[in-house]
From TrEMBL:
SUPFAM superfamilies linked: NAD(P)-binding Rossmann-fold domains
Pfam family, one: adh_short
The protein's name in its UniProt record: SDR family NAD(P)-dependent oxidoreductase
Alphabetized PROSITE patterns for the sequence: ADH_SHORT
InterPro entries on file: NAD(P)-bd_dom_sf (IPR036291), Sc_DH/Rdtase_CS (IPR020904), SDR_fam (IPR002347)
Alphabetical GO biological process terms: fatty acid elongation
Family listed: Belongs to the short-chain dehydrogenases/reductases (SDR) family.
GO MF entries: oxidoreductase activity, acting on the CH-OH group of donors, NAD or NADP as acceptor
Amino acid sequence: MTQTLTGRTVVVTGGFGFLGGALAAKLVKEGARVVLVDRSAVPAQALPDVALALGGVDLGSPESAGAAFSRIAGELGGIDALVNVAGGFVWETVEAGSIESWDRMYSMNLRTAVVASQAVLPHLLAKGAGRLVNVGALAASKAATGMGAYAASKAGVARLTEALAEELKDKGVTVNAVLPSIIDTPTNRADMPDADATRWVSAAALAAVIAFLLSDDASAVTGALIPVCGRV
Ligand SMILES: NC(=O)c1ccc[n+]([C@@H]2O[C@H](COP(=O)([O-])OP(=O)(O)OC[C@H]3O[C@@H](n4cnc5c(N)ncnc54)[C@H](OP(=O)(O)O)[C@@H]3O)[C@@H](O)[C@H]2O)c1
């Protein structure tokens, strides 16, 4: 099988989470040199065959992100692509919820994406080409009960994607987002034991769409917000 990302250095934020792990496995299979960045400590269990794994990096901090991306570019001779997977979720009604949840969702989902994008841009622009893929959420287009803070932060990720795609149109860097519905994760299965998990999108299927957006075949796609929903 032909590999589509041979030799490309791809940084995945939130790389020690569930989707981050599945994405790393897919990108390694496609020949990429994969770098995982996360605020959690590097997990004790074996990771896919990644080039570098950096734990303890808070992507809410421009200083911490800047240092991490400079180190990656220095050690691997540049950076070709960034996938912003880092994020989090809360279910909370507006009536019973706290304002801190809105701040926390903003920090985890939107601030991390903006900070990591700003940190990677000098490295992508230095190469004159690059790929940026954000993980948004389908829930951002219409928020259900309890989803206000999460959906608002992911709506921000959608607008970031559009604005940055326009900004970089003539600079060789594409910027797109995938919008998953419910990913089939152990956490979701535990939280929704009565749901039909076969209708959800698998992390492997989502990773395949992200890998396509990182590939040369997707060079004409920028500013796209792509629903990846399984059968939800
Ligand atoms: N699961 C779903 O059904 C679903 C649906 C739609 C969209 N998404 C999105 O898909 C992405 C991945 O989901 P997932 O289920 O794989 O989540 P996950 O397992 O919780 O992984 C997310 C990772 O991001 C890390 N992270 C959070 N804030 C960070 C920060 N400030 N700096 C560095 N790392 C940070 C988390 O660390 P901590 O563990 O320390 O927080 C975690 O390791 C998220 O953006 C999520 O919103 C998920």
